[in-house]
## 1
Amino acid sequence: MGIEEIVKNANGFSDFNPMQQKALKKDLFNKSIVVSSPTASGKTILAELSALNSILNNRKKVVYTCPLRALASEHFNDFKKKYSASLQIRAAISIGDFDSSSSYLKNYDIIYSTYEKLESLIRHRADWLQGIGVLIVDEIHSLGTDRGSTLEMVITKLRFFNKNLQVLGLSATIPNSKEIASWLNADLVESDFRPVKLVEGVFLEGTIDFGKRKEKIESKSDDIEALAADTLARGKQALIFANTRKRSEGIAKRLASLTSRQLTESEKKELEKASEKALNVLEQPTEQCRSIAALIKNGVCFHNAGLMQKQREVIEELFKKNHLKFISSTTTLAAGINLPAYRVVIPSPYRYSGFGMEKLPVSEFKQMCGRAGRPAFDSEGEAILIAKTDFEKDDYFDYFINGKIENIDSRLGIESNLRFHLLAAISSGFIFDLDSAEKFFSATFYAKQFGNLSELFRKITTILQELEEMGFVHSSEKRIDVTPIGRRVVELYLDPVSAYEITEGLRKNKFNDLSYLFLISNTSEFYPLLSVSRSRQAELWERLQQEKHLLPINVELEMFSDYNLLSKYHTSLMLKDWIGEVSEQNLVDSFNVQPGILHAKMQRADWLAYAAFELAKLLELKEHLPRLNKMRKRLKSGIKEELIYLCEVRGIGRVRARKLFNAGIKSIAELKKVDLLDLQRLLPPKVALNVKKQIT
Ligand SMILES: Nc1ncnc2c1ncn2[C@@H]1O[C@H](COP(=O)(O)OP(=O)(O)OP(=O)(O)O)[C@@H](O)[C@H]1O
Ligand SMILES: [Mg+2]
């Protein structure tokens, strides 16, 4: 059976769609291709075709890369289910741990990974990368986003290694796809085919205007509710995009009484079960957990970065089963995924930036709309903006619906990006003098777009000097070399400036917990920082003054040059409360940091503490090593030092460990001694049993 038949059978398709046929005609199997086509047009199938051809016919490995872990997982699971067993294809996913070459990956045929993890694999010289046949870049329009420079580097480097590398770039509809294709020496497949018709319209005063037709719906005092009720009446589901986390929660709450009336008995039962699951992801539920659980029971929920990963999964699953009728989400659900939303509703296409409210980019708007009407679930779809006035309605039509999608522009010229990637390119040997630098950067998308590199080289000269002053490179007339510490900075995936600040900080004398925590909050990796409300500023400044001797920076100097100083201090205080065992709910109340955000921040903090440990080791700053080691464990579990050992037992987190400790069980030895029945008085019976099993 040929590859095309295999893919059709595995997916149960009778035929390829016009976009896919176009790509097949363009020699998808032998050439680099860039596809620019609408959402839901079936680009993933092209990835499957190309991957299988490379693995089965050419015996070459494939790497699939995309911007989101969740997206990588979805595609990985899907691919595995369809092809792994039947064709004996070994598929792996690699999305974590940035300081590892993950050498086991060489045993796999297809590796799913995020842009960042792939860059980190290159930095660790994963040599199997040199022999891959196809690089599949999903959402290649990400070149123009904040993470774009990393993607640009990944592509440039892999093509540098391997002149015959085939690239399959999958992009949303963008105006300059030709430019991207030309950069990659690829054929361009452009298509406006969307298997499911998607109409975009604006809702105002009870009427949805789709341009060609208008639809009146039953009005209610609240626009979102009116659209939701109408969706339910058609037996459909909707995704509502809110522009803040708070609003996403508010919208779900507003819709709860509407959905709860529509649930069948069996739906209620399912929702009840799932609600329990979502409630108990932490040892001690926060108000947000309770709110999520209550909403789920009512057949609606919100979805944003403040939720724990498990809760998000529960919610997505319930929506797919049509048990939840609506999800109100921030952009966490805006790209790439397949959900059964007949409607997408966008109540306000604005977003906060540092300077007030601004319009969403048109491209992002189109991505959101594209979540509606997915072929696996619906035969049509609607995306609806809500306007308040006629003026706004006209503006939405002009700007968003009929507006021009933005060009994708290289982000490599931004100084911080350039610094980060220049050091890495020197460390990996792509660059060793100015000629090689020119050769390397000539192969970038930046060079394609700007034609000449003079502006870039002006910046590079300054950056090289900085890197030399920081001790990360060593350059002479003839050569540019990385220093051992510079090389480690690259492997640790650190911004050189952060690494420098960390090493300088570690050299200071006075160090306590706060000093380490500030060291972490003071890095660009830890952005965004927690904001400080105006009412707390005076008090915080005062406290900062009192503790300034503990901060591993020159506070007098930074007070005038670093306008983030107070937020950094505030953020370190949050970390300090976390390792002081302040409850998650209290952290929400005093720092406005939701469990999901807290969790993500702690993963970051752990990585930065690890990086600080590694740098201290290299610099022989030995006194920091045991302390940083403990700090990592404390950050991971949110505990005081005395609970470290108890928390190493699976099933015991900060709350349970504290309970045991207070009951006099302070060590593993004591945990071993106590009998099961007594332990079950302190811990949930099942947990107690598992704990006993682990330690005996
Ligand atoms: N030839 C086909 N026949 C029937 N269904 C198809 C065909 N090709 C793809 N599909 C279905 O279309 C849906 C959308 O496909 P996919 O997720 O690949 O879209 P996409 O182009 O990647 O969209 P996005 O830009 O939103 O990521 C999937 O459910 C897929 O199974
Ligand atoms: Mg896709």
Note: Residues 43-44, 138, 336 surround magnesium ion (ligand 2) (CB under 6 Å).
## 2
Amino acid sequence: MALTLIDISHLLVTRGNAQYGGEAVSQLEHALQCAHLAELAGETPELVTAALLHDIGHLLAPEGEGAERAGRDGLHQCVALPFLRALLPPAVLEPVRLHVDAKRYLCTAERGYQDALSPASQHSLELQGGAYSVEEAVQFVSQPFAHEAIRLRRYDDAAKVAGRSTPAFEHFMHTLATVTARHALASQMPVALPA
Ligand SMILES: [Fe+2]
């Protein structure tokens, strides 16, 4: 089932108060901080939207414990893609799909990156397959949108500060609506904008 803008808004508002992993922020605070950091860095509306939605898979499939959680931590970046594919272009979907792989890449490519991860992120790294080998890292970074995913990863890592102020949710929903409208025009598909 394809998500609409209203579905996405509803998901973020109604389920976004869940804690973001073991971090000191909620899922919605994390999404807003990540999108804000992308915007401050001068990223395109598409990458700002990717930052806003990169973990929406967690809201579609809330995490349980044990093995079930392990599977989801390794796959949350893919859970949402079938639901978003009709609405958003590859410039949004691909960085979302690759943002966990970007963490595995940075652990190999950048000295000190892994040690600087939060304890919760170090734990999820194990569930996600750990640092890449050099060969895997080279293969990763040669893909389209790998560099956007790496930048998204850096915003993701920094978007965990309790109490940090951000623009309102509506600000980023406007960015999302702009990106979906642009994609619909490019695809010659009708799109229902929120009232
Ligand atoms: Fe995240």
Note: The mean pLDDT is 89.
